[in-house]
Amino acid sequence: MKKLVIGLVAIVALAGVGIWQFAGSAKTAPDVTFTSLTGEKTTMQDLRGKVVLVKFWATSCVTCIAQMPDTIQHYNDLSEKGFDTIAVAMQYDPANYVKNFAETRKLPFTVAIDAQGEIAKAFGDVKLTPTAFLIDKQGHIIKRYLGNYDKQAFLSTVNKALAS
User: Fold this and answer.
1) Quick one: which of 49, 72, 159, 162 is 20 to 30 A from 152 by CA?
2) For all residues of the chain together, what is the average pLDDT?
3) CB-CB contact of 90 with 56 (8 Å)
4) What is the pLDDT of residues 7-25, one digit of tens each?
5) Residue 131 to residue 125: CA distance in whole angstroms
6) How are beta strands 83-89 and 110-113 bridged, if at all?
7) For 95-109, what is each residue's pLDDT tens digit?
8) CB 122 within 8 Å of CB 135
9) Residue 4's pLDDT is what?
10) Rg of the chain taking only CA atoms, in angstroms
11) Would you give the DSSP letter of residue 30?
12) Residue 2 Cα distances to 7, 11, 13, 150, angstroms
């Protein structure tokens, strides 16, 4: 009986440590303001209640351009369920290139230019593209993606976040 009680206490203690460890592991996304190509301002606070992909990209980034059709498709398929995308063009990307790309590809989501590099700095000083952050409805970063990623795993993570 004594061993059973000790075993149960140990299990409860380990569970408590696990809950404590994982409860604080989701970092809150920085409270930045995105300014779209049309001048509309959106803050991370405005996006609460949605699952959001913040994607840092550049028109000169081959992988970014290759991923854009999937990014468009995911937005189109999931936006009605509460998914949003903010494509943040890097500071070095000429605004006219970004605007031309967004218009010719008819990007359906918000495209923002990080003219001063402040958004990239706020997200951990992003330098490499593509870098993306998946943010849950409460504003916590649940996943960071660098370069190419597994599409099925991405969609699974997004759908779990949408369901919560």
Assistant:
1) 49
2) 88
3) yes
4) 433 343 333 333 333 334 5
5) 11
6) parallel
7) 999 999 999 999 999
8) no
9) 43
10) 19
11) P
12) 9, 14, 16, 49
* pLDDT in the model for residue 90: 97
CA dist 110 → 17, 18, 115 (Å): 40, 37, 15
Q: Give residues with Cβ within 8 angstroms of 2, minimum separation 6.
A: none
Please name the residue that has the structure tokens 């918000």. Answer: 110
Amino acid symbol at 152: Q
C-alpha 78/C-alpha 94 separation (Å) is: 30
Extract the tokens encoding 65: 């351009």
Take residue 76 and report the two structure tokens written for it: 């189109």
* Pairwise CA distance, residues 104 & 139, whole Å: 31
Q: Is residue 138 scored above 50 in pLDDT?
A: yes
**Lookup: tokens for 124:** 């951990």
- Contact present, 100 and 133 (Cβ < 8 Å): no
Which pair of tokens denotes residue 116? 């001063």
Hey, what amino acid is at 68? M
Between CA 97 and CA 151 the distance in angstroms is 27
